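Limitations
The structure tokens in this dataset are predictions for the assembled complex, not deposited experimental models. Users should treat interface geometry with appropriate caution, especially where small molecules or nucleic acid strands are included. An illustrative entry is reproduced here so readers can see what is and is not provided.
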Amino acid sequence: MTPSDPAPASARPGIGRLLVSCPDQPGIVAAVTAFLFERGANITHSDQYSSDPVGGGRFFLRMAFSLDGLADRLDALAAEFDARVGQRYAMEARFTDAARPKRISIFVSRYDHCLLDLLWRWQRGTLGVEVASVIANHDDLRPEVERFGVPFHHIPVTRETKPAAEAEQLRLLTGDAGTTGAGPGIDFVVLARYMQILSADLLDRLGRHGIPAINIHHSFLPAFAGAKPYDQAKRRGVKLIGATAHFVTADLDEGPIIEQDVVRVTHEATPADLTRWGADIERAVLSRAVRWQAEDRILLNGATTVVF
Amino acid sequence: MTPSDPAPASARPGIGRLLVSCPDQPGIVAAVTAFLFERGANITHSDQYSSDPVGGGRFFLRMAFSLDGLADRLDALAAEFDARVGQRYAMEARFTDAARPKRISIFVSRYDHCLLDLLWRWQRGTLGVEVASVIANHDDLRPEVERFGVPFHHIPVTRETKPAAEAEQLRLLTGDAGTTGAGPGIDFVVLARYMQILSADLLDRLGRHGIPAINIHHSFLPAFAGAKPYDQAKRRGVKLIGATAHFVTADLDEGPIIEQDVVRVTHEATPADLTRWGADIERAVLSRAVRWQAEDRILLNGATTVVF
Amino acid sequence: MTPSDPAPASARPGIGRLLVSCPDQPGIVAAVTAFLFERGANITHSDQYSSDPVGGGRFFLRMAFSLDGLADRLDALAAEFDARVGQRYAMEARFTDAARPKRISIFVSRYDHCLLDLLWRWQRGTLGVEVASVIANHDDLRPEVERFGVPFHHIPVTRETKPAAEAEQLRLLTGDAGTTGAGPGIDFVVLARYMQILSADLLDRLGRHGIPAINIHHSFLPAFAGAKPYDQAKRRGVKLIGATAHFVTADLDEGPIIEQDVVRVTHEATPADLTRWGADIERAVLSRAVRWQAEDRILLNGATTVVF
Amino acid sequence: MTPSDPAPASARPGIGRLLVSCPDQPGIVAAVTAFLFERGANITHSDQYSSDPVGGGRFFLRMAFSLDGLADRLDALAAEFDARVGQRYAMEARFTDAARPKRISIFVSRYDHCLLDLLWRWQRGTLGVEVASVIANHDDLRPEVERFGVPFHHIPVTRETKPAAEAEQLRLLTGDAGTTGAGPGIDFVVLARYMQILSADLLDRLGRHGIPAINIHHSFLPAFAGAKPYDQAKRRGVKLIGATAHFVTADLDEGPIIEQDVVRVTHEATPADLTRWGADIERAVLSRAVRWQAEDRILLNGATTVVF
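Predicted assembly:
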């Protein structure tokens, strides 16, 4: 090898991330740190949280570290970590390569504000993900999506076709149902104002593939249920309107909250104004949640999240 | 009268405020403006709102104006306005003298954060009200209140004594039950974390005396009912906690909203942290609502408010 | 005219806006209101501000009103108002037709975040303007702009060519230099991260055509001058970064402020993070300023603005 | 020792905090973690920051840990840490006992809003400090302070008496100048709108005693210098007013920023309104900075802060 030769790919330094969740007990940080140190990793960032500092709680950890040859060593590292540390502390642990962007599929209906904001941030390189596909139950937004060079799949959903439609969605997300090779490799799904409920069955199947779904919905104090939320907000005279991004569970709009924000409104605001401002706050909140998930910052803690 | 004589009190200029609410129709602003102009008033501030600009809505107006001899002319002005303008447009109209601070009575239980914030702003002269009395169902806060030179009335409330207790509260607020002369002259009541429900009967009687009550309560997205709200907020993993100031109606915590605000929280916040931050946001929101009411900025529009 | 005939265009009701600025004195509101009432206009919205309620200040008024046949009567109404009311009170007064959207030209260089946000809001119909053209000193953003169907004019600017370039800009904005007919009819210019200074001469000429320019720039506490502002912000360790939209004057970045907002940052933010969040806050602030100008909400008060 | 005997004080568990700042290099976290683990400490919280993840930057760490007998072992632990870990990595390291509240002295002049907010939070037990004394260059606020049971020292300052006044201040803060025994034990000074500049000499002496000073001042975009800042803010027409809490250095108002916040204002705000809202935002920002310092959350990074 002459001096001008680049280092072989396997030796190039990379940034890895380790996410850990386990019952709290003494010695966890020391064990994880020692494991990484002994393998030549340098910890560049570390966040931890204990749900009960007095004891008996759950422990959460996110570490970023640099390591030579990370890309090639990641799987072996994870296996070794599990054997040496993870099993001992009953850890749920996950290693990721920061250089590999997460791949997402965006679900939409007819509202475009969240979709376009995500596509636009993705195009600028500031969303931290690859947009692998858009799946829609209406065909309206096809031109907008294809303009960005992103595959658009129109899968109509009616009460009768829902099982078949969800099977098709699952195939597009996971490559099940006969594909060979790598598959689409979707890391998570983003419901960008998708006006259909994902069935418990679909959520269960996605969960088994390790594919969470993030949803965005409007939020008010007090809360409203039912149709035309901004008309209700007007009738109730709220002075704040907001949005909540959360993981999707079988309990609609009740999944673990990732991020929330609000904007002030006055009596002068019409339902049209509220709708417009609501769209702005929805897209801001959703883009933050997507980016945090892309950066492996979110851990589940029962019905809540830990966001590092 | 020599040149150095001061103007008689009756001729001194004052700032008046006019609040109007009526069915919307053409010509209202012109009629009000002409009435004031012809009597020598100069309009210094005007805000208006129509609940439906297309027609058929309700119209709201707040005007501030300067007028020589305002204090002495106010009652006659109001009567003349009613005869010439108010009846014609089916107006609810109210004239006030900006120089006369509103008098309030603060209801408390054991929490002191909202009470002390109001007393402290009052002492600094920035709340825009006179604190006439504090009425409490516990005696704990007496020393704090008396330190500010404000009368403190301890009226315990149990299920059995509630009617008698409310009768005593009413007497302290309105001077009913046999007092002669001016009475306490309370303009509005502030429930500063008063942990008792005002009965529909008491609210009705206060309403007939023209005495509204403003309440403060915590607010979350989604909303919670029941006890220990900040523990619930922790379990639900909310990322925002807030407070709502509203007028009290027989529907607990459902009265017309005056003001709302929120503060961001993270997974690290303990219920104690949430409680502390909640106290900060509660006192900030309540003090704004009190000041706006003191400045005659709030009009009722059905179940909502117009805040000018 | 049979019953099914539509009303002639000249009789159709429209929404007009009147903006007034003049020395404060008694009777202004009454005079304006009477004038409109006598011509059959119904005032649907009114905001006013007096820079010194005690007297001697300047008075500002924005009224919206409905009037049959507004579009055809607007010029005559303005002339009559000037003769009957405006001259008497030394008013600067302006009547506009709310149904006619303002036409804007957007100036850009290479940054696309503010431009795309404006184009996208315009396409959704929520910006309240017509985007008539984009003028750029670089050709990079041509494809993005033309995708929206908006004319893109590339006018390079160097020190030597600046006078000629500005003459060409002026021609595109005003139709000067030999065009016949209506001209481009630009109502205001938006500098969406245009990295060139408009000369005092160009601003003066635009001023004579009644064409203001709105600019957006980053803002920090404390303020920074010079290049690479987000690197400076990082070195100074600010905890907030912000943006300011303002009218352009010959004093760079010192024109009357229209809107400001900030976002919180921490020590962890890199200059790249600050730049990304700065872009988000810049586009949010600029879009608000553009919409307010489109709705005739902004009046100049010396070196400051009144935003109704 | 019978079963009912309490554990000796020396064995009681306590919460310790470790703050570290040093040149970044591989292995720091592993070394610190191993040191604590081997001594029986359980890490309950850990935050770290590297000013340049690529290398060559500075490393910052804050750890909280539980340890039996902490109070008695703290000094020995610190000495051992320095010998085994600190010197090897050129660390600035500090161990503290979370159970020992920091002691502060508050400097004031005549404005009471920040002072009273701090005293009130201290009385409620939510500030996390002991208020040991108030030092004032005017006597006005004595009754307010003594009402809280806090010693009030009136030390007038003129140009001539400044050296003597600062010597007296230093004596009150450090117990220098002949006191014997423990001394006042002040951990940090809070300038709560103290309208005097601390001399470079006093700051230097305080620095040698390890006593930092935190200041609060108003902040605007753009920034203003000189007197009557809220009048200037009014003339400039700002739409936001803010406050900055920072460490005091010889460069007035240029020390490392700890916290900033803003509140929105409109053209209607008078200088009196701005002053009132400014007071609210000043006390909110200052109380956050004081609490964070009390919790050992703030580390210096050159001219900036790391706030964990």
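Some entries come with short summary sentences. For this one: Chain A touches chain B at residues 49, 219-223, 235-240, 242, 244, 254, 256-262, 266-268, 301, 303-307 (CB under 8 Å).
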